[in-house]
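Lab notebook page, bench 4
Experiment: in silico fold of construct C2
Operator: M.H.
Input chain length: 241 residues
Purpose: comparison with the prior construct
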Amino acid sequence: MLYGKNGTVYVAARSAERSNVGIKNIEAAHPKSRGKLMIMVLDLADLSTVKPAVEKFLAIEDRLHVLVHNAAVMMPPVGSKTKLGHDLEMGTNCLGPFLLNKLLEDVLRRTAASKMTPSNTVRSVWVSSVVQTGPPKGGVQFDENGNPKQFKAMENYMQSKSGDVFLASEFAKRLGNDGILSVVGGLVPVTKPRLTRLESAPGLDDDGAAKTSACDTTSCYGMVQETDDTAEFHNPDNPIL
């Protein structure tokens, strides 16, 4: 959708090859777009790859309007770990996106503060799946050492998605006064539904506004992240992660 509005979208994945798959699919869906699709290589299960990827992005771009956290590992083999030894689902679905968001805070703030940026158009979107269907009691449970408890199959995944809801809430508190929206995307009951879907947000109407965006996804991210998306209209030079 963001690329279809002539935005610049960084498609983040664990390899350039995987990113290219997402890029080709997006191009095929929006053949008339005048936007740009850029490769970003990072692995949310390996935190050492996140900062170099952000540094490369910031060497090219000075604005970021939308950061979509849509990465998800779901029900990997029992005992699967990240490079640093964290539970793979919690590490990929929460820790990696947390670090990515932190490292991009400054450029999000600068973008929100720009006179060219309409109010309430800079945001982080935390995709939470169908989180209300079965998370553990309290959303995330911790053991005596302060680590998230391990659950079986879908319950462990839902715990990580609950973590995304908590992260969205916390970043909203920290960044809201800077003009940055931190919202939950997914099938989550909320009191203001217009904030749950990116396409319903201000600044992305039918006339479109080119944005710079980054997304996380299972197959590609806007900055799009993969695991196993204001300048004036028609300006394709604003990036979306």
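Observations: The CA atoms of residues 71 and 217 lie 4 Å apart. The chain has five helices and seven strands.
Next step: discuss at group meeting.
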